[in-house]
Give the backbone structure.
Amino acid sequence: MTFTELRWGIVGCGQISHDFAQAMRKCVNKNKIVAVAARNSDRAESFKKELNLDQSVKVYGSYEDLFNDQDVDVVYIGTVNHEHAATTLKALDFGKNVLCEKPIAPNVKDAKPLFEKAREKNLFLMEATWSRFFPVYKEVRKIIKEKALGDVTAVSVTFGVPDLPENRYWVDKGQTPIVDIGSYTVQFATWAFQDRPTKITAVSRKNDEGCDLWTSIVLEFPNGGKANLCCSAVDIFPNKGFISLTKGYLEVSTLFWCPEKLTVHPGPPAENECEIEPLVFPLMDDAKYNFNCSSGLRYEADHVFDCLKEGKKESDVHSFDESLKTLEILDEVRRQIGVVYGQD
């Protein structure tokens, strides 16, 4: 594989795949789409036309046909959530490097074989937890690592999206709010603490089908720190994230999972009453997207390029262990609130 460019195959032609393909136009590195695949060739052809992709881009009516394409260096898997694990495993079996949309699997049990397969086949694999690659998250990590505001003591974050369509969630298929949007709150906490919690406490409300509607989680960490997390498919929240440190706090703006602003507050609020200008990392992209700030998907595409160029088979930003850490927490949360997936 040469690195004048990285050749991508897009697997699944839904809304998130559309946004990923659109965002790649803004990449710093030369990431190029060379093939797209859907369940049928008509859908893949429509996807190609909709995005005005180059005529040389190949269209496949099956995922396996794309996996067989020797011109494809890495595949982006943007299928529906409950197909992520099986499609990723198949891509690895065909010898493809993989970036798979989150969640990579509904639970730890289904995720571990994917990482084991990637190691066995000596292939790159990463769960596309795009938040980790935004400039704001990188700045947060830098401030914490350099102890500019001391040590992390607490995290608070909420994610409320009450207008999500009802047909987005299926308990039997392993797709409910706790994994779909709750995973973002959990990864925010572990990004701050860089550790596993020692204690997990969760409460929730479910509907008649056993699907979680809202969940509140408290995580306690080895250093005495704590995280208060809440995700909801029925409530309106500010959707901001706060990280408290011994000498101040960090405010990650709405929307915390794809932020463009970070406000650094030195000292407690009582000592810092004047307005503080946030650090701004604008996306500067006026293309049409299906989801908020999807232009930021380009950051993870560029990260994959860098990893493969350096010969890495695992990201040092979002490693296999980081994915498992989130799923371990979510598995325990679901055990406590009684949400059982078909894959469990």
In short: DSSP finds ten helices and 14 strands in the chain. The longest helix spans residues 320-337. Residues 6-129+296-314 form a domain with the Rossmann fold fold (CATH 3.40.50.720). The two ends are 38 Å apart (CA to CA).
